[in-house]
Every structure is written in C-alpha cells, then in structure tokens.
Amino acid sequence: MVNKSGSERRQKKKNNTLSTRINRVVLTILILIIISFLVSIYIITERERKEYEIREAENTIKTLSSNINSELESYMELSRLIMMEDRLVKFLRADGTSVDIGMINDARYGIMDILNVTGGVDSVIVIRDDLIMARTNRFTYKFDYNKLSSDEWKQDILVKKGKAVISLNSNGIATKQDGKPVVTIGRTVYDNVNQKKRGVMLMNISANVLDIMLNELRYDNICIMGEDGSYLAGNRSLLKYYDSTFDRSTVFHEDIKENREKIMISGAKVENTPIIILRVSNFGTQGIPYSILFMLCVLLLIYLVGMTYLGGFVTRNITDPVSQLSESMERNKASGELKPIETHIPDGELNELKNDYNSLIGHVNELIETLLEQEKTLQKAEMRVLQEQIKPHFLYNSIETIGFLALDAGADNVHDALETLGSFYRNFLSKGGRDIPLSREISIVKDYLSLQALRYGDIINAEYDISPETERVVVPKLILQPLVENSIYHGIRLKGEKGLIKISSFMKDGMLHLIVRDTGVGMTEEEIEGIFETSDDDNEDQMSKSFGLKGTIERLRIYNNSEDVVRIRSEVGEYTEIEFMIKDSRSGE
Fold first, then answer.
1. Which of these CATH numbers, 3.30.565.10, 1.10.150.20, 1.10.340.30, 3.40.50.150, describes 460-583?
2. How many Å apart are CA 306 and CA 146, to the nearest integer?
C-alpha cells in the first residue's frame, strides 16, 4: 500500500513537470492550429466561391443589359425612319374625312417596306389622334378599345414629347392572340414640317429577339421578365424566384437554400426599361483558389513539423536544465541559508540565469547587512531627536523667566522683545512638522520682522497682501523667512536707505503663488543665474545647516516634484521680486 502511494506521488509530480506542461501546451497549440486552419480553409473557400459567383453574375447581367440596350437602340433608330416614311406622313396629315382603306394600306405598305430590311419587329401600330390606325400584322392582335379610347394609356409616351418609351405588350392596349409577350417602343409622332402632334406609334418587338440573344451567349440559367413578373424569354422555370423587390437598377444578390442546396439569385433592371434580368446559379467548385489552399497546406505541414521539433528542443535544452536548477534551489531552501548554487549547468542562458541568481544572492546578503546598519543608525537618530525635543521646552521656559524678570524691573520693551522672540521660536520649532499652513508661515515672518525692527528701526517697512483663500494652503515650513532675510541683508541694508518688503499670495490654476518683493539693490542677470546653478560643494550637510535661497528652492522642487517652482525678477538699484509656485494642499486645521 505504501509503495502504491509513493508511486502515485511520483506520477503526479511527473505530470506536473515543466516538460510535461510544455508538451501539453504544444499539443494544444497544434490542435488549435489545425482546427483554425480547417475553419480558415472553409471560410476562404466559401468566400471565394461566393465572390466568384457574384463576379460572374454581375458580368453576365451587365453584358446582357448592355446587349439589350444596344438592340433596343437599333430599333429606336428604325422607329425614327418609319415616322418619316412619306406614305405614313400623308396618312397622318390627312383630314379624317379623306382617310380611306387605300390610304391606310399605303401607310401599312410603307411601314413594311422599311421593316423588310430587319427582323424581330412583330408589328407596328400607328394611331392617329382620331383613333384611326394603320398597323402591320393586323390579325394577330386583339385590342382593348375601351382603354384605347382613353388618353390614360399613352400619358407616359406623350410626356416624353417624341422620345422613345419602352413598355410591354403594346403599352397595355393590345395583346397577341397567342399570348406571347412583346417589348414595345412607343413614340409621339410629330409633323416634321410644323411640329404638330399627329398621333402615337407603337413598335412591338418579338421576345424571340431576347431568346436568340440568350442562345448566342449560351446562357441557360437566366430568365428575362417584365417588372410585373411576366415572362419574356429564357428559362421559364426561374419565374418562381421573382420578387417585387427585384425592381432595382443595380445588381442585387440573394442567397437561398433549396432542397438543402445553397443557390444564389442575382438580378437587375435594364436601365430605362421595364425589363428585369434574373440569374440563378449553384455554388460549384469554380472560384476555389486551389493554389492558395495548396500553399496553406504546405505551410501547415511545415509548421507542424517545426512545432514538433520545437517541443523536443525545449525539453532537451530548457526544461531539463531548469529542473536541475530548481532542485539545487530546493536544496538551498531546505538548508535555510542564502547560498550560491554550485550545480553545473550547460553554457547558455540558463547558465547565465544561475550566475545572475548567485549574484542576486550575494546582493541580497549585502542589502540585508545594509538594512541592519540603517536600522541601527535610525535608532540612534530617533534617540537624538528625542533628546532634542527637550531643548525647545528649556528655551521657551528660559525666555519666559527672563521676560518676567524684565517686566518686574520695568523694562517693558525688553519684555515685548522676549515675547516676540518666544512666539517666533514656538512657530519655528513647535510640533516638529515639516509642512504648516500659510497663515502660520506668515506669523513666523511677522515675528521675524518684528525682531529685525528692534535692530534696524524704521528702515524696514513691511506690507502683506495675503488672499484669504490661501491661508489654509499647506506649505513647507520656513520658505518665506529665508527670502525675507535675504531681502534685508542682501538688498535693503546694502542700499543704505529705507526699504519696503511686500509679501503677496494668490491662487491661480490650482497653484499657490507666493511673492516676496523688496526695494533693495537688486540683482544682475549673472547673480540670478548663479542662484539656479548647483555647485558640487553644496553637499547635504551644508544644505541641512542653512535655510538659504538655494536650499529653499531645492526643498520646493522636492515638495512639488517639479523643477519649475520659482521666478526671479529684478532690476539693479530698483527691486528684486521672487515668486514661488506651490501645489495646492489645503490644511485640515
């Protein structure tokens, strides 16, 4: 029983190895590729077959439409000749009382003389305005005299004013005795001298002309029909596919299934005629891109062979060395120490991985030692900070004691100065925070200027233009005091006359703008550029001991995480104006 369990564990571990998983992935990819290939072949084949049938249908229908239009154009030219035949013109011009059977026959013979030079015309019917007719093939048509007596049937012809109008079956006033369809060319007949309307001519063209055309082109899957679905020529069995929506000038295509076989119906209306061409075709093997399919099969075979080789290559050159590397790491894990791997790995990327791993182990050990040293240093610093916390309280208490002694001695000015100094240091040192509201920063500056006034008297005047909306914006502590100090010692004092320090603040585009302006000696362009230059001597220890202008700019850059934090404007002998831009961070106080 124990042996069986051990065997199962080994089998389970074997099934979970990287090599086994890669083989499974490769096999899955192969299966997916084969399935995708077969689906792609099916889609490509079906698409190409359909596109081939569409191209064939469009070429056939466009060719046939063009031929029908050309044929009808020739018959239209013939109808123009008939209208100019002398005997027909005489018949049309004659007064109704003078028209007799002889004149009608003369007109008919004149028409027939012209028709003898061509075929396909079944009959020509010329109807005067008084409904007297001259016609060929007199006994093969039956007329609807009720319809003939109205003007409704010829309105579409009259509107064209002599231009040819294509219709079917004598424009609805007559049909053949045998029921065969005809294509009719109708024209309004005008007198060629005075352009007076004389009547209407209908030229009926036999549908056999269309059958002959189809036979010459060897089209047996086409039916030519009227826009009402009536049969004209071609394969009569295709009439069942007619639909009223087929009345379009552009070629349409529709796929249907019949007896589980997919067929395509294509068709279009012949331009400027009531004739519709319908083509029905099966999806055969035409259009299948055998050369492309052959190339795809070759590529698939190459890909399958390549994937099979790749699977074996990965097993021999990757998974087996990885297994060896993993076993070495497991031994390190079991030992509980971060030791370099000593297992031999063949040259290659995995050997580089082993070397990188060993380098990482060495680096991690170094980092651990560094972290331990930093932790010790941090503990010492925290102890030092704790000790420094005592000093400000001692300073405050000492200042207050001296202030009370001065007050008892009647030195009120000394007492006020000590109170101002105490207020300054409380704001300067209290709470130990790095960031404070702008209102407290302004208080620090006011206390500082009050202390400076004790030394310099009224030589220094101060103005404040602080926008109320900026007072709660949080700023780094002591960013204004260094600027004010700089204005006093390097600006106003050097000028040797009274000066003004103006401090302004406002919000713009989500940024706090702080401006310190003094009326001191000003700065040259070189001096301004020197402020922005960083010297290698400005080390971290020096920066920590000074809150000078450079240090303040550097603190703001770190605070804003941006280089663009300051603008300096100055005119020598007139003024210096320093503007800070600080991101908006509201205080919750």
1. 3.30.565.10
2. 85
For residue 146, give the H/E element and its range. Answer: helix 145-148
Sequence-ordered list of residues with C-beta below 8 angstroms from that of 566, at least 6 positions apart, any chain: 553, 556, 578, 579, 580, 581
Residues recorded for the chain: 589
Dihedral angle of Cα 303, 305, 307, 310, to the nearest 10 degrees = -130
Q: How many helices (H) and strands (E) does the chain have?
A: 18, 19
Structure-token pair, residue 495? 């000028």
CA–CA separation, 381 vs 376, rounded Å? 9
Model's pTM, two decimal places? 0.47
pLDDT at 298 over 90: no
| CA–CA separation, 260 and 262 (whole Å) | 7
Query: What is the b/e burial string over 167-186, where b = at least 16 CB atoms within 10 angstroms of the residue's CB?
Result: bbbbbebbbbeeeebbbbbb
Mean pLDDT calculated for residue range 171-184:
90
Share of the chain above pLDDT 90, in %: 26
Other Cβ atoms less than 10 A from the Cβ of 271: the count is 12
Question: Among 540, 578, 537, which residue's Cα sits nearest to residue 558?
Answer: 540
Alpha helices in 345-411 (DSSP H): 349-388, 390-408
